[in-house]
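Each field is listed here:
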Amino acid sequence: MKRLNKLLFATIAFFLFAQSAFLKANGPPIHGDTAFVVGIEGAGISSFYQEMRMAKLLQNGSEITDPLNREMRVRMIPLMLPYEAIPNRLLIGLSVPYLDKRMEITVGNQRKVFTNRGMGDATLFSKVQFYQKDRRGGTTRMTGKLGLKVPTGKEDARDESGALLAPGLQLGSGSWDIPIGVVITHLYQLWGINTNLVYQINNESNGFEKGDMFRYDLSGSIRLLPIVYEEYPSPQLNLIAELNGTLAAKDRNHDITDPNTGGHTLLFSPGLQFIGGRDWLINISYQLPIVQNLNGSQLGLNQTWTVGFLLYLR
């Protein structure tokens, strides 16, 4: 009942927010994506600092007592280099993350700590706009996305005793994976809605295969300042709300399905975004889980903080 109340509150809040956004303004999503490929006019640099904390044990989606008192923190700083190869048509780029993972567990009366840090798997990405319908005061655009995750992160790290770290503590998966998706953006006058749908095909490496994943994002925004533009472009402050969902299949290890993997997670993600004219923007976001229907026994997400920027190199 508590989970349903959270979902109902977040859903109502989002749609009330989106309706008010129709009357105010729009900004690009923080966690999702936009169908626009125009605007970079060359290259750009984007990055963010993200910290995730997982410290509650779930059994088929319901919180239970954890006898090991487990807590995991993941810090991520990716470097993303987008390039507008064909103006208003094709965007390509590279993303390389730095990861810092830390797991604490209690065994007997002893607190054990496992850490792993370094470069993760890189991703080559592309975005092609295939539909554009402009009208007075608005536009609708659709973009196809295709990527390739390259196994650049270490997948065989071990602890002090020489034991192989769990897959969740590894920096890479060892597999070549393919994300493919579509983004739909609809703008009318001063409001906008972005929908991002991505399916990732995960492949096997050394007997381990992470379950395929489907991600969905819905976002809306309100311009807080300025209320009326005196000139455009000019600096602006946006309030953003997003719903970010993930459906993951179960992992397989040497053809044996792991019952304690996969499931459905939905996050409510409010944030602030400051756009400094034509050349840069910064944003901050807090993510709160409202649905964590995870299979078997898994650590659930408590919260996520994200602070990031995008700089255009014109």
